[in-house]
Specification:
- The protein is mainly alpha-helical.
- The chain has a single domain, classed as Hypothetical protein af1432 (Orthogonal Bundle).
- The chain contains 9 helices and no strands.
- Helix 3 crosses helix 8, helix 4 crosses helix 8 and helix 6 runs antiparallel to helix 7.
């Protein structure tokens, strides 16, 4: 609540409680809060392994990653169009209604990777995208700890590849 209480208390998030989600969580609001929980676990793992990640950006982007689904024009569209458009619409809502910064907007826009978007460009965006996948597969039979460690290793590999390629 400390990092995203304004989002959770907003009229837009109250609307998200009325929008069903395909997972067991039941609605977009619950799914988004669960995503924030997984994203924080991934963030903790990354920090334990030496990567600096903004918890504020991770939580806020997680809470807002599916907020585009609260727009009737998005929610009532066919599944493929909905999957493609809700990150873009959500990024606009996040920026206009919640003052989302560039890192948060990028995480929202790219959370559907690898389905419909370009790869995330920040550790925060990777954490949100992977946390969303964790929720979608409902901890997959691996269990939370092993799943977070597996996702964290992928982020670290990405980070080390990108930092090496930028050195002279």
């Amino acid at each position: 609540m400390e990092l995203g209480g304004d989002i959770v208390a907003s009229a837009r998030f109250a609307r998200a409680k009325q929008v069903p989600h395909h997972s067991k969580s039941g609605n977009i609001a619950l799914h988004s809060m669960e995503t924030a929980g997984y994203a924080l676990l991934i963030t903790e793992w990354l920090e334990e392994h030496g990567l600096s990640v903004s918890r504020v950006d991770v939580v806020r982007a997680s809470l807002l990653h599916d907020i585009g689904m609260t727009e009737p024009s998005v929610f009532n569209s066919p599944s493929r169009k909905k999957a493609f458009s809700h990150p873009r619409v959500g990024a606009c809502i996040a920026e206009k209604e919640f003052g989302a910064n560039e890192t948060q907007v990028e995480a929202i826009r790219h959370h559907m990777f690898p389905v419909f978007s370009m790869p995330p460009r920040s550790a925060e965006a990777w954490a949100v995208s992977l946390a969303d996948k964790c929720c979608s597969i409902n901890e997959a039979r691996l269990g939370t700890g092993r799943l977070v460690a597996a996702m964290g290793r992928r982020i670290l590999r990405w980070y080390h590849r990108t930092t090496r390629s930028h050195h002279c």
